[in-house]
Amino acid sequence: MHDQAKRLRERMQQNQPSRQTRLVTVTSGKGGVGKSNFSLNFALALRERGHKAILFDVDLGLANLDVLMGITPKRNLLHLLEAETSVWDILEKGPGDLEFIAGGSGFTQILQLDTAKLDLLFHKLDPLYGYADAIIFDTGAGISQESLRFMLSSDEVILVTTPEPPAITDAYAVIKMIHSRNPQTKVRLVINRATSDQEGRATSEKLAAVAKRFLDMDVSKLGYVMDDHLVTKAVKQQRPYFLVYPQSQASRSIRNLADVYLGSSDESMGSSGGFKGFLTKLKGLIR
Ligand SMILES: Nc1ncnc2c1ncn2[C@@H]1O[C@H](COP(=O)(O)OP(=O)(O)OP(=O)(O)O)[C@@H](O)[C@H]1O
Ligand SMILES: [Mg+2]
């Protein structure tokens, strides 16, 4: 049964027109601002619009997307090191048919693999390029060297903050770090837990204006997600709010945000050379 599903998937993939795949890293300065909830529900909102988004848990050590989805992944990224395992074997199905890859015991371990193993791992991930429209990496709290490398290697960075000053200050610190390493990195802001439309808009405008003024860096505003008690309720139910409360304020705002995202694609997006380009950059930053 498993083999049959695998063959079917491989065949389907072969018949599909190749897609431009964007590698998107979701990050924040301060922890607990809602990155994982955003990544999960944003991926579902994109899928609702027919955009094939795959979710990738790269939280360094404390993976928790599976808990938010109420699933126990059978395989994770490290299983790719086994000779007989292909990427289709580690692609798990989550709620709403969301395709998902578990990071396993943490990406730190993966980044410490020797070059041959790292090459094998990314070589095996390569079929995802052209299969998905977007691969969304959910990173952990705090600005570690590992997550910075991830950000600098991806096609774009979605930086999540709440409207609270400590979160905004830490988000600005991330922008500064990215700027000092590669000012060409595409950074897009998401304000999570906005208490009004006005607050959502004003927070991102202020942060983008500061980045422009002090760093001369163009940071784009992707949008905001409303603060909504139904998010907490869904977290407790271990179900994505976008599926259990599709008409909630949070779901409606994430749907708007997905539309902005889809409307903003341009030719320069998704053209970084796929996983090979990603790996080349990542390896360059590690060594
Ligand atoms: N839009 C929202 N409205 C209300 N509460 C929210 C919203 N988004 C997130 N939360 C609350 O914030 C908590 C933390 O969210 P989440 O786990 O997604 O943050 P995180 O940034 O991924 O955390 P970490 O840095 O630990 O990875 C959730 O459990 C939920 O209670
Ligand atoms: Mg998280």
Q: Give me the strand/helix succession.
A: HEHEHHEEHHEHEHEHEHHHH
Assembly context of the chains: single chain
Small-molecule components bound: adenosine-5'-triphosphate, magnesium ion
CATH topology heading: Rossmann fold
* Number of helical elements: 13
Q: Let me know the number of strands.
A: 8
Summarize model confidence as the mean pLDDT. Answer: 87
Structural class: alpha/beta
CATH superfamily: P-loop containing nucleotide triphosphate hydrolases
How much helix, percentage-wise, in residues? 40-55%
Shape: globular
CATH architecture assignment name: 3-Layer(aba) Sandwich
Largest sheet: 8 strands, mixed
Strand content: 5-15%
Q: Which radius of gyration do the C-alpha atoms yield? A: 18 Å
For the termini, the CA-CA separation is 42 Å
CATH class descriptor name: Alpha Beta
Q: Please give the domain count.
A: 1
Would you give an account of this structure?
Keywords: ATP-binding, Nucleotide-binding. It holds the Pfam family CbiA. InterPro entries: CobQ/CobB/MinD/ParA_Nub-bd_dom (IPR002586), FlhG (IPR033875), MinD_FleN (IPR025501), P-loop_NTPase (IPR027417), ParA/MinD_ATPase (IPR050625). This is MinD/ParA family protein. This protein has one domain: P-loop containing nucleotide triphosphate hydrolases (Rossmann fold, 3-Layer(aba) Sandwich), CATH 3.40.50. It is globular and about 55 Å long. It is α/β, with parallel strands linked by helices. The model has no long low-confidence stretch (mean pLDDT 87). It is 48% helix and 15% strand. The N and C termini lie far apart (42 Å). Strands 3-4-2-5-1-6-7-8 form an eight-stranded mixed sheet, with helices on both faces. Bound molecules: adenosine-5'-triphosphate (ATP) and magnesium ion (MG). Adenosine-5'-triphosphate binds next to α2, β7 and α10.
